[in-house]
């Protein structure tokens, strides 16, 4: 699991959208590629929105990030 984990540094009160579909060209951030995937595959992916209350560094993992299947 660790090899696909991503470290993100977020600032207080700054909204961040994290990709959950694995298709973003800017992982771990959402670039709205999920909309195309949802249209093509009938899925309902959405980004995970995070608004931290203080500056924070997070280690994130999503099983779809290393998946080539869709
Ligand atoms: S691009 Fe993957 S959730 Fe938006």
Characterization of this structure:
This protein is α+β, with helices and mostly antiparallel strands. The protein has a single domain, classed as Ribosomal Protein L9, domain 1. The chain is built from one helix and four strands, in the order E-E-H-E-E. The radius of gyration is 13 Å and the shape is globular. It binds FE2/S2 (inorganic) cluster (FES). FE2/S2 (inorganic) cluster (FES) binds next to helix 1. The site of FE2/S2 (inorganic) cluster has 12 residues, from helix 1.
SSE layout and pairing:
Elements: E1 6-10, E2 16-18, H1 33-41, E3 48-50, E4 56-60
Antiparallel strand pairs: 1-4, 2-3
Ligand set: FE2/S2 (inorganic) cluster
Strand element count = 4
- The best one-word shape is globular
Determine Rg (CA atoms, Å): 13 Å
Number of helices: 1
Strand percent estimate: 15-25%
Strand order of the largest sheet: 1-4
Work out the count of structural domains: 1
Largest sheet: 2 strands, antiparallel
Provide a short characterization of the protein structure.
With 70 residues, the chain is α+β, with helices and mostly antiparallel strands. It has one helix spanning 33-41; strands at residues 6-10, 16-18, 48-50, 56-60.
Which features would summarize this protein structure in a list?
binds FE2/S2 (inorganic) cluster, 23% strand, 70 residues, Ribosomal Protein L9, domain 1, 4 strands, alpha+beta, two-stranded antiparallel ribbon
